[in-house]
Structures are given as C-alpha cells and as structure tokens.
Design a protein that fits this description.
Blueprint (H helix, E strand, L loop, with lengths): L1 H29 L16 H10 L59 H6 L4 E2 L5 E11 L1 E6 L3 E5 L4 E4 L5 E9 L2 E12 L7 H9 L4 E6 L2 E4 L2 E4 L2 E6 L5 H10 L9 E8 L2 E7 L5 E6 L1 E6 L5 E8 L7 E7 L2 E6 L5 E8 H12 L6 H18 L18
Helix pairs in contact: 6-7
Length: 401
C-alpha cells in the first residue's frame, strides 16, 4: 500500500517549488516580501476541504498590460515599477501658483496737496512746483490782519475748503476768528548730543536715574536727501520730567541745578497746534472763503507777491513797517498765541542768492563767494527742524537765524 503513494507525493512537490520560485522572483523585482502562500490541497483531500482552503487563500496577483506582475504598493512606499503600474496613482499636483507681481508704487503726491499745518508745524521741507525744496521763513507774526497782493494771476488754497482764483494785483485781506492758542509743554533740558553720538548720553541717563530723576528722551531735527546728499541734523535730547507748565519746568530746573551753579535750559514742544478760522476777503470786504487755520498763495510764473506793512527793525519801543515783495509761496496761518502769521516759503537756492550778498560784498572773489554759499547752505540745512520748535516756521528774518 505504501509503494503506489510515494510517486504521488513527489509529483505534487514540483508545482509547489515552481510557485515559490516565481513568487521569490516577483518579490525581488518589486522590492517587497512575497505574500504568504497557501499549501494546495493534497490530491487525496476531500472536495469540501479543498474548497474551504481555496476560499481562505490569498488571491493570485494579476497581470498588467505589459505582462508583468502588478503588485499593489504598500502605503507610503515609493514605487519603482514601470509606467504601466502607475495608472492607479493620483494625478500629479499642478505647478505652484506664483503670487502676482505687485504694481509699482504710485509717486508721492504733489506738494500742493500737502497739509500746510503739517509742513509748517512739523518743520519739514516742502517742495515747489519745480521740485525745489522750500524753506519757511517768518515775515511777521502776532497780527490781527494780513494784506497781500499777487503780482500775477494766482490761486489761494484754503485748508479744508476750496481754491480761489484771483487776478493779478487784487488786494486781499485775511482775518481770524474763533482762535485758540497752541498747547505747549516745557521740560528742563539736561543733555543733548548729535544722533550719531547719542550713545554717550547713556552714562548721563543712568547717573540722573540713580538720583531719582525721571528722564524723558526726545529727538529733534530730520534726515533727508537734497542734491544727492543725505543731510542728518537729528539730535537726541534728555529732558527732566515736570508738570509741563513753564513755571513747573523752571522749578524742576532749579532743583536740578548742577554743582557748578548752572541751571538747565528749558525745552518747549508743541503737542497741539493752534485752532481757528481764517476768513479771506475781497477789497470791499466781501468774504471769498474760509480756511481751517491755514491757507497758502501760489502765483503763476513765480511772479511773486507783495505783503503790506511788513514789520522790520523791531525794537522794544518801535517797529518799522513797509510793503515788501517776495517770490515763492505765501502762507498765512496762526502763531502759538493764536494770532495771524505770514510765512514765506522760498526755494533754498533763491534764499542763498539773497543771503550770500548780505553776508559779504558781491564784488568779492568768485571763489570766496562760492565758499560763502557752501557755508550758508550748510548752516540753513543744519537748522531745519532744530530751531523755532514752537513756531510755524523754520527760520526767522533776524540775525540769529
């Protein structure tokens, strides 16, 4: 009985070895371990048992169009098989969408749209219609009325209002109503230094704070570019805190008197500009418009304007007056006390043309005049934003400016 059965077992082992070899070869090609193989039912097994084993066996891997074994990749695995097996993969991601290119920045607004209060009280440079820097210079202040005449057709721009076109030679007046002075605070000035040297103020600050002094820091001046040059006249200030009034600042300065007996100077700053309404009137007194605290006049062709009764040669007992002609822009606004002020906006180079001959004879050597022009220009630029901090102008017409 045993002899006939032996050939049957050997003949059944050959197909199993062939199947294992084929699966091992497929595993090498697909870089994954072979799937478990279910033993085929022996030839003498009962039909019911063979059917049960067939139902629990793993399905045979199918064949793709190229005739190679298609094995589903494991999750997260990188496929290394040919293109035929990639048909079931998700489509490739679309190329990244680059952000749109931002349009170029719009050029800065023209100077005619600048807020005159910001220009005057901010002590910053404005620019003429030709793009030249304008320096603001006081003509007169503390007035109840200002009268002017344009020497060509002109327009008056009313802050917060409209623009009034006026003919050449028209005599116009400006008055103010409902005014209120500027809000100004005062503090003792303890130390100051140029912006580039502000580090040397730190030992001073620490020494003052060790004495129990509340130290405030302020920056005056500005940094700007003119003619391809960068001008930086900023200064760092150390102030002693006070109640903000002028009397309180003087008391604080007296308490901080140095051992040498020197008392700190006072520093004043504007925290709110003056308020009021300016009324522009025609020669007969008929109102032409109203402005919120400021207006300015521009004359066509830079023909200039005449301001009547300009104060000059001021002294404690008398003030001389005369009509004076100017080129550039005329500002009318309120001073720190709420009275009317006339301010001349003049181009820097035009200012130098009048300033240099007043400081040395025009018959001087041309090189000497050039050197004086350089000195005068540097002096003007150094003072922008550092003087007259409680006035609506950068410079005055007095000798000290």
């Amino acid at each position: 009985m045993r002899g006939p059965a032996e050939p049957s077992r050997r003949s059944g082992a050959a197909p199993r070895l062939s199947a294992l070899a084929a699966l091992a070869l497929a595993a090498c090609l697909t870089a994954r371990p072979p799937p478990p193989v279910t033993e085929p039912a022996p030839a003498h097994a009962e039909p019911e048992l063979a059917a049960s084993i067939a139902e629990t066996a793993a399905p045979e891997p199918g064949l793709d169009e190229a005739g190679t074994t298609a094995v589903a990749p494991e999750p997260g695995a990188v496929s290394t098989i040919g293109p035929g097996a990639a048909a079931g993969l998700p489509p490739p991601l679309p190329p990244p969408q680059l952000p749109p290119i931002a349009p170029p920045l719009a050029p800065p607004g023209a100077s005619e749209h600048s807020d005159p209060l910001e220009v005057l009280w901010g002590h910053r440079l404005d620019f003429s219609s030709r793009g030249e820097p304008l320096v603001s210079i006081r003509l007169m202040e503390g007035q109840r009325e200002i009268v002017f005449r344009p020497r060509g057709s002109a327009r008056v721009v009313l802050r917060g209002g409209s623009t009034v076109e006026i003919p050449a030679g028209a005599r116009l007046s400006v008055r103010a109503r409902g005014t209120a002075p500027a809000a100004i605070v005062h503090h003792p000035l303890l130390a100051d230094a140029a912006w580039a040297e502000r580090e040397r103020l730190e030992p001073v600050r620490r020494a003052l704070e060790a004495r129990g002094v509340l130290v405030l820091a302020r920056t005056v001046g500005a940094v700007y570019g003119i003619g391809g040059r960068v001008v930086d006249n900023r200064r760092e200030l150390l102030l002693g805190a006070s109640d903000g009034t002028e009397d309180g600042a003087r008391r604080a300065a007296e308490a901080l008197r140095e051992p040498s007996g020197a008392r700190p100077a006072l520093h004043a700053e504007v925290v709110a500009p003056p308020r009021g309404t300016l009324v522009l009137a025609a020669p007969g007194g008929a109102p032409l418009g109203e402005a919120d605290a400021a207006l300015w006049v521009e004359v066509a062709g830079d023909a200039g304007f005449v301001v009547e009764g300009v104060e000059h040669d001021r002294s404690p007992t008398a003030r001389a007056r005369e009509d004076r002609a100017y080129r550039g822009r005329l500002y009318v606004t309120l001073d720190a006390r709420g009275a009317l002020t006339a301010v001349h906006g003049v181009e820097l180079e035009e200012l130098l043309r009048g300033l240099v001959p007043s400081e040395m004879p025009p018959s001087s050597h041309v090189e000497a005049l050039k050197a004086q022009a350089v000195t005068a220009r540097s002096n003007v630029l150094a003072q922008i934003g550092t003087r007259h901090l409680t006035d609506p102008f950068m410079l005055c017409a007095e000798v000290h400016c």
